[in-house]
Design a protein that fits this description.
By secondary structure, the protein is α+β, with helices and mostly antiparallel strands. The protein has 13 helices and 23 strands. Bound molecules: flavin mononucleotide.
Length: 480
């Protein structure tokens, strides 16, 4: 059975030896963040802080900080399955004729199992707080020069102002006072898109910040699901069971019923303030930039909620593992658009938006460049700064193999493309302008005569079968 909420996730992590409880009193001001970072850099456990100074709410961090924890949370050891389910859905034909339709019913009902279901109440409606305030929540300050306290793992719910399609995105939120905060939805993200449409219509946009929920729902909020695809459905597909939702009390949004806390409010596009600095995924402080203000209008919560948080900084921290699972689960979708793609890696050290390595089964001249240009037009992959394309004999997850291919199969003048003034990640510390920078693509596939490669194509060194068998059979006698 899929995991329903954070308390159940904690139990599962604990019984797998993946979680430790800290009973010593700890401070939300820098101390908890430093403990979480040290634990992550040492491949340590998820941590539940049970005694948080000035608060009676426990704090959970590093909950997704290993592949094992993600396997437990998402209940799969093969993350590509998640994307494959979506690909299979898009291929599903609804046949004509009643008998054929009946034959398809099991498949169709499996699909409908993933839809969310609206309930009258749920764990998160146990307490309705009409006098809402951020003050009772153990929100962390994570780096010494951060502008203040930030909610770092809130799932921000909005809906498309015209189509009503629901979204969840993890965007950090800087606390200003008891009821105001700054919403850091970057320009290219769905939340910001919804906000821009509302702004054009001269409206405020309703938003809810959700803490906790099913691990699959948390994962879905980070996943780069394209606009038009309901993220609640994506969560249901991920866990093979639809999530339960409830209505907010002060705004017209549905939110996961199994959440720990729901902070309801609205974002006013005309009310903008400088956000940051904030110690970011890149390992640098992202400087101040203007973002709109969120006003808190209500809180729904469990009797005893747990505050889920995360800490970012120079890789590799918790976000790297979530990124790895996104990389694996989106591979089938990438293949749907670029069928020659064999494998794909977004190395964690490149904070997942910095660099991507793609292997392809090359059939025609220029195909590597076609693939990189295709990916630069695909959702959040558009923000990737460097792409390296290699042949399918290269393991994209082994940087030694990738560098070998780059240095033996690519000629810089012939095999690289630079495109200037393209959208880039807001967090990129090196781009000349915020949100605008250049791309470098390296075609490190073996060049062919058709690609103007006039020289002899050198043969790869490879041991012959006879020598291999001889050495295999005598290996133990060498005393090595
Ligand atoms: C811990 C963490 C913090 C994040 N903070 C932000 C943020 O402040 N702003 C942002 O735009 N994206 C942030 N992201 C990335 C988005 O969650 C991610 O791009 C997601 O796909 C956005 O969803 P959407 O555009 O589909 O709504 C963060 C991701 C993680 C894992």
């Amino acid at each position: 059975m899929p995991i329903e909420d954070i308390p159940q996730f904690i139990q599962e992590l604990e019984s797998a030896g993946e979680l430790k409880r800290v009973k010593t009193e700890v401070d939300t001001d820098l101390e908890i963040a430093e403990i979480l970072r040290r634990a992550m850099y040492a491949n340590g456990p998820a941590i539940l802080f049970e005694n948080v100074k000035g608060h009676d709410m426990p704090v959970l961090g590093n909950a997704f900080g290993s592949l094992k924890r993600l396997e437990i949370g998402l209940e799969t050891t093969d993350f590509t399955e998640i994307g494959q389910r979506i690909v299979d859905m898009t291929k599903m034909e609804i046949p004509s004729g009643i008998f054929n339709k009946i034959k398809k019913l099991p498949e169709l009902s499996k699909m409908s199992d993933s839809f969310s279901k609206l309930e009258k109440s749920g764990p998160v409606t146990e307490v309705i707080n009409d006098n809402p305030s951020f003050d009772k929540i153990p929100i962390l300050k994570t780096w010494p020069n951060d502008a203040g306290k930030f909610i770092t793992f809130g799932l921000v719910a909005t809906k498309h102002p015209e189509t009503g399609v629901r979204n969840l995105g993890v965007y950090r939120i800087q606390i200003l006072d008891s009821t105001h905060a700054i919403m850091h939805w970057q320009k290219h993200k769905r939340g910001a898109h919804h906000h821009d449409i509302s702004k054009e219509r001269g409206e405020k946009i309703e938003a809810a910040i959700i803490i906790g929920g099913e691990p699959a729902t948390v994962f879905s909020a980070v996943a780069p699901v394209p606009e038009g695809f309901d993220k609640y459905l994506f969560a249901g597909i991920t866990r093979k069971k639809g999530i339960k939702t409830v209505k907010c009390k002060t705004i017209d949004l549905q939110v996961p019923a199994n959440a720990e806390l729901v902070l309801e409010g609205y974002v006013d596009p005309t009310d903008v303030k400088d956000e940051g600095p904030f110690g970011d995924h890149t390992g640098y402080y992202t400087p101040k930039e203007p973002f709109p203000i969120f006003t808190l209008t209500g809180i729904m919560q469990r009797q005893k909620p747990i505050y889920l948080t995360t800490v970012v900084g120079k890789p590799i921290l918790e976000d790297a593992f979530i990124g790895k699972v996104i990389e694996r689960s989106f591979l089938p979708l990438i293949k749907m658009f670029q069928p020659e793609v064999v494998d794909f890696a977004m190395p964690a050290a490149g904070w997942f938006q910095g660099i991507g390595i793609i292997s392809i089964k090359k059939r025609y001249p220029g195909q590597a460049k076609k693939v990189m240009m295709g990916l630069w037009g695909l959702g959040q992959l558009a923000l990737t700064k460097f792409f390296v394309v290699v042949d399918d004999d290269v393991n994209v997850h082994d940087m030694n193999e990738v560098l070998w291919a780059v240095t033996t199969r690519a000629d810089p003048a012939r095999d690289s493309i630079i495109i200037d003034r393209t959208p880039t990640d807001t967090l990129d510390p090196s781009s000349p302008l915020v949100n605008l920078g250049s791309k470098l693509g390296i075609d490190a596939t073996q060049k062919t005569k058709e690609e103007g490669f006039e020289r002899e194509i050198q043969e790869l060194v490879k041991v012959d079968d006879a020598t291999k068998s001889l050495v295999d059979s005598r290996w133990s006698s060498y005393g090595l």
